[in-house]
Amino acid sequence: MDGNKIQLNFLKEIFRKINPFFISGILVSALVAIPVVIVVGSFLEDTSEYFLLMRNTFLIEYISNSIFILIGTLSFTFIFGFFAAYFISLFEPNLLSSLKSYIPIFLGLVMFGMGLTITFDQIKQVF
């Protein structure tokens, strides 16, 4: 009986220490990495003529554009986001705490804006 209580307490302690942001970060990273792994892995197997056509025409441009967009997004996000958050938290730590309840609304507006900027041609490229 005591052994079961010790195990249960041990499991509760482990679940308390798990950081949900770390887990979600790992999951998002895995979702982003899956297409990259598939494309790189497909270079190692026999290819069909469609893949050869893709490789000879637009695959390299697609990969280089994706890497360029990724590096640019990460750089600008880090530079502006990091310094803005640093200065706000340094000089006025409670400045934005009153806006906590509006976070879902702001995120909805951002997602709506992203949806407005996409075109049907971009959707056709994906499918």
**What is the C-alpha radius of gyration, as a whole number of Å?**
23 Å
Shape: extended
Could you give the distance between the termini? 58 Å
Largest sheet: none
The percent range for strand residues is: under 5%
> Would you tell me the overall average pLDDT?
81
Helix content: over 70%
How many helices? Answer: 6
Please give the number of β-strands.
0
Describe this structure in words.
This protein is mainly alpha-helical and 127 residues long. It has a domain at 1-45. The protein has 6 helices and no strands. It has helices spanning 2-17, 20-42, 49-57, 59-91, 103-117, 120-126. The longest helix is centred in the middle third of the chain and has 33 residues, at 59-91. The radius of gyration is 23 Å and the shape is extended.
Question: What is the secondary structure topology, with strand pairs?
Answer:
Elements (H helix, E strand, L loop, with lengths): L1 H16 L2 H23 L6 H9 L1 H33 L11 H15 L2 H7 L1
What's a quick, concise take on this entry?
The chain is an all-alpha fold and 127 residues long. Helix content is 81%, strand content 0%. The protein has a domain at 1-45.
List keywords for this structure.
127 residues, mainly alpha, 6 helices
